[in-house]
Automatic annotation (TrEMBL):
InterPro entries, per the entry: E_motif, PPR_At4g14850-like_plant, PPR_rpt, TPR-like_helical_dom_sf
PANTHER family with a match to the protein in the record: PENTACOTRIPEPTIDE-REPEAT REGION OF PRORP DOMAIN-CONTAINING PROTEIN, PENTATRICOPEPTIDE REPEAT-CONTAINING PROTEIN
Keyword Repeat: yes
PROSITE patterns documented for this protein: PPR
Any one Gene Ontology BP term: RNA modification
Gene Ontology MF term list: RNA binding
Start-end of each PPR repeat: 84-118, 119-154
Species name: Linum tenue
Protein name as catalogued: Pentatricopeptide repeat-containing protein
This protein's UniProt keywords: Repeat
Amino acid sequence: MLFKEMLVVDGEERPNDTTMVGVLSSCSQLGMLETGASLHGYMEKTICLLDMDVYLGTGLVDMYSKCGCLDSALKVFNGMRVKNVLTWTAMATGLAIHGKGKEAMEVFNLMASFGVKPNLVTFTSLLSACCHAGLVEEGVHLFEIMEVQFGLRPGLKHYGCIVHLLGKAGYVRDAYEFVKRMPVEPDLVLWRSLLSSCKVHGDVDLGEEVGKIVVHSHPEMMELSEDYVALSNIYASAERWKEVETVRKVMKVKGVVNKPGSSLVQGISNHIPLG
């Protein structure tokens, strides 16, 4: 690895902060804990006042969190004398993505008490982490306070996270009602997410309704066989073979080619009830 070679060179060439932040980001994305930890050791030996460098510190928190070493992430985080919104976001997101919802919310609340205001990226990261870990109550709470407490208007990504979160947890009807109340136009990614949840949780009636929305939406876009396959699978799960055959015929008439490997038989602001 080029970075490791840079560390052992005897000359003056040494990695700068920009290089090290980039390497930490790569370690985070690829789960390269050993390389990230080695870089951390190098930093401690060569950088004075590492606890004052918010960018390197945040990179370390993010790397350790995403690699699953929460104790190391917290140690770096608690030792940092300077933190910005990205630092707090990285730590809270790291806790949430590993299922530690209570601890994540504690960090989030502590951030506000220190006068650091979360931004849209903070909420996108935290809501995505809640989806990953199945933290329904925490995710719903975060969405509710975005605009009310922090004056941040949710975007499509934030709405999509809630739809995915509710659908994944089995609250497909609540997710659908939430979509209907959205002040922004739902995209196909959102509808497909809900359709997938309907299939997973066996809600054939809603799956049929959502599936029809998907295959008839945005006619200017190329129709995908996966959308028809998803609708067909909803019918097949309920042994509604007549409808399966109808989907097959519609695909043939429209000239939609089935991709290889796919089978045609297989209280937020408006209140989200969770029970």
